[in-house]
Amino acid sequence: MAAMELQQLVDRIAAEVTPGGTPAGYIPALARIDPHAFGLAVATLDGEVFRAGEHSRPFSIQSISKAFTLALALAENDDVWTRVGREPSGSPFNSLVQLETEQGIPRNPFINAGAVVVTDHLGLGAADRLLGFLRQESGNPALDVDPEVAKSELDHSDRNRALAHFMASYGNMRNPVDVVVNEYVRQCSIAMSCTDLAKATLFLARHGVRNDGTRLLGVSGAKRVNAVMLTCGTYDAAGQFAYRVGLPGKSGVGGGIIAVVPGKCAICVWSPGLDVRGNSVAGVDALDRFTTLTGWSVF
Amino acid sequence: MAAMELQQLVDRIAAEVTPGGTPAGYIPALARIDPHAFGLAVATLDGEVFRAGEHSRPFSIQSISKAFTLALALAENDDVWTRVGREPSGSPFNSLVQLETEQGIPRNPFINAGAVVVTDHLGLGAADRLLGFLRQESGNPALDVDPEVAKSELDHSDRNRALAHFMASYGNMRNPVDVVVNEYVRQCSIAMSCTDLAKATLFLARHGVRNDGTRLLGVSGAKRVNAVMLTCGTYDAAGQFAYRVGLPGKSGVGGGIIAVVPGKCAICVWSPGLDVRGNSVAGVDALDRFTTLTGWSVF
Amino acid sequence: MAAMELQQLVDRIAAEVTPGGTPAGYIPALARIDPHAFGLAVATLDGEVFRAGEHSRPFSIQSISKAFTLALALAENDDVWTRVGREPSGSPFNSLVQLETEQGIPRNPFINAGAVVVTDHLGLGAADRLLGFLRQESGNPALDVDPEVAKSELDHSDRNRALAHFMASYGNMRNPVDVVVNEYVRQCSIAMSCTDLAKATLFLARHGVRNDGTRLLGVSGAKRVNAVMLTCGTYDAAGQFAYRVGLPGKSGVGGGIIAVVPGKCAICVWSPGLDVRGNSVAGVDALDRFTTLTGWSVF
Amino acid sequence: MAAMELQQLVDRIAAEVTPGGTPAGYIPALARIDPHAFGLAVATLDGEVFRAGEHSRPFSIQSISKAFTLALALAENDDVWTRVGREPSGSPFNSLVQLETEQGIPRNPFINAGAVVVTDHLGLGAADRLLGFLRQESGNPALDVDPEVAKSELDHSDRNRALAHFMASYGNMRNPVDVVVNEYVRQCSIAMSCTDLAKATLFLARHGVRNDGTRLLGVSGAKRVNAVMLTCGTYDAAGQFAYRVGLPGKSGVGGGIIAVVPGKCAICVWSPGLDVRGNSVAGVDALDRFTTLTGWSVF
């Protein structure tokens, strides 16, 4: 597909989608954002970025951070898979049931308990390492944690603390819970734009190769992150997302979604209005249109 | 990839895999099969079939039948998705919990409860319709239910009857439980070879088009079956299968696995030795090698 | 307490309670009964019966039958406690979870799954044995199953069939599910009056001795039935009942409740209006008043 | 029963029971105690105490503290029942399931989550208030927290912190988790002898009246504590305890059990060897013999 065509496509999608749904309400800083905002960016392997809407407006990446921290953890020698599984969870209704049944081992790195384990695996300084990685891949050295969001999340962190202490009671926590929750909250509170995120996601489309040509992950590691994204990346709507979009993707309650077309491009779409399962309404719609129009679906 | 190469590849895989694991033990007829048997068949869109090992030896298709009954149900006007979900389940440990939490609506068509609903949706004669479809697609009019396996399964059908009555108590069963369980058991007890199954699966690689050029499903319907296979097709190892194989697939406790490379081919591999999650050890290994050697993975 | 006083007390209670709540709705035959009906009978060890209200009007005993079938099963040599537990369940929300976690062994004989096991233990003819026992103890040879209620229950027996098949899948069912469910339904559908039930319950106040002076149970067996009634006899309100009434009791969704004052008397109260947990509103109130006025509480 | 007889009875029980089982292993300070130690004390309403074995040796009261903190909380005007239920739980296997299903409201005050809520209800200084009460009722001003046990428990408090944060996420925690867990741990770590505990429990046998003749609880409040003890006081063996002992009782993993004969006496027995459900083997046996020999059972 030619560059010209991709830009037209991106513009067409931005023109056609109708933002809807409701922004996440549990944090004031997220709740007051206009639900009709919309941004889209597609970064291709040859270095171009096609953009539409509010593509350069930063938003809270929230759970999208989980895809990156998983990649960083997999880049270490130390095996994270002994501490967290790789299977879909059937969340949310059984999150704690599962954790109890499976003795403190979360089902996958994208449910909160699993992401907390991954953060603990990265240890003290996890959020700063993530920031460093995202700045370099996006080429945007100004990326940072949104302090207001971070504070608000810390004030509402009882559920995550419960999960962390619960896993600690099974011996699956290396650092103090306070430290881990703090790193976790800072990661989720990073603010990025669609353009930033599309660029930062490109290493997954490049089978693990970073912006500067070095490898973060081997081909197998990148495939693993993509597989986890496809089966577990959109909360309890992974089956529906696999059908409608048919690409590995990871969403966040800030309204952003990243998606990967292996060997071709990385996409980031943002619109704060969420459906009942926590995925951006306009975001899923835009990705659905994108794969329908390009034919770049997995199936 | 040329035909010559595919045959070499199939031969190489058959030579390299080491069958292992244990046959399913809950039914005598399945338990006494040699766990080291192995067969492989790859059917391409242009009509060729590449084979290795015991590719023409019939085995019990068991849960592989679920992929076909889902396709048959989707081919009807009547919407089956109001009665069964499309999300991974995190089975097995919470199967009944979920059914209770979600008021008698199974999570997806590939857990037993979901397949029972799909069978009920097809109604009386479901097994005969499935047989008719499989005979026509495979070109093998001799395909039939293995009466010994069917009898053995009927004698061990209490769990499935429990699921069916439980769903009936929520109003999610149209036919008498006896009728539905009988149809369900007959479907699972059909005996087919790798060659039969690879051919019969081709309609999913053809985006819904049958052997005779007519459509069973639209493109969207075929994509749906593939998406459900990728996210839910291998019991509680879908994440691991997505990573190792990276293709839509459906396994059965008879040791068979079918897989689809959309637009290219359908594969069936068989070896009765199972891992702890109920998937064929040599079958997963063979598919892993196949996608590694061909590069025909989704990611 | 003198006979005169007991009659005054019974009259006073009947005058003071205000029937309320809603009759059980899942069976038409039960749903259309006047929720304000009220009856009370107290049978003492010396053979007197003190009555008030509609004490001689038959109603559907429903789960009250579970106390009697447990007693009949304990009277056999064959040990029923290997097949059913004796602990409170925290029902209803986890009934099936527990059954799965505890491998087909119900928590106690008063949840449906447990009562089905007890019925299976008694085997074919269980309902007739129960009828025979109740006729003899109550001195009312006309007692019988209400055929309309029995039919209605059979038509709504999917949940109980699910439980029975589920336990059968764990090997905890001796007779065919059809047979057991039929016996179970007939037991629940027996119609008795407060007077009938108070008399029939006297053997528990007599520490196991029947009307004719023979023993159904040893002292230890009678104590066991009373202990199960106190901890598990009123669905998920056993703690509340223990506090308000402080006596071993067993309720049914037909609106009846039996209670035992060991060494003194047996009580039956009836009023069809139920609270959210399935216990008769006026029934619990009347028993609360009875123990408050007599001081005959356990605590 | 005369004083002479009670002393003989107590001596006979001490001579006949055979301590067994295994001390609680999760805290070093508890694990290294001789499992064969045994003590018994019966305090009657007229002020006498009958003793046998190591009746004056202090042990860790652990969960026995829950009966006293419940009584202290009920003595306040502020209603604790809006924050914790009164029904048996079917613990342990579903503790967290229940908490999630019931939106952060623990089932009863004797499971850990419920006791944490009661402690939070008493607030900062809860442990000191408990100590003050126990010193006064036992007449032993030297009672105190065992600092070694308290430290060990604090080091293993992740599960309780998880429960507290989980309830906080539902809004059911007034004080900071750190404060509440600290108070809770100190309460559990109080060391008392059988004689101390039997005396301190007398107010429940006196229907709420303290040592000095003032009331801690009304008759109704004392009945409530007794009812909760009977239905929930011995972990997941309340049904079995109700049958064998037939008295309101509360056990702790330190090996102690208190029991109440309303209107007659309070009993404390201690032996550190536990059965699989966490109750003292010799303790339950001794209480079983006590009620059998005296006939002072509820049933």
TrEMBL record, chains A, B, C, D:
EC number: 3.5.1.2
Top-level class of the enzyme under EC nomenclature: hydrolase
Residues that coordinate or bind substrate: 63, 112, 153, 160, 184, 235, 253
Substrates-to-products reaction catalysed: L-glutamine + H2O = L-glutamate + NH4(+)
InterPro entries per the UniProt record, alphabetical: Beta-lactam/transpept-like (IPR012338), Glutaminase (IPR015868)
Coiled coil: none
Keywords: Acetylation, Hydrolase
HAMAP family per UniProt: Glutaminase
Quaternary organization: Homotetramer.
Family recorded in the similarity comment: Belongs to the glutaminase family.
Protein name: Glutaminase
Organism: Lentzea cavernae
Lineage: Bacteria, Bacillati, Actinomycetota, Actinomycetes, Pseudonocardiales
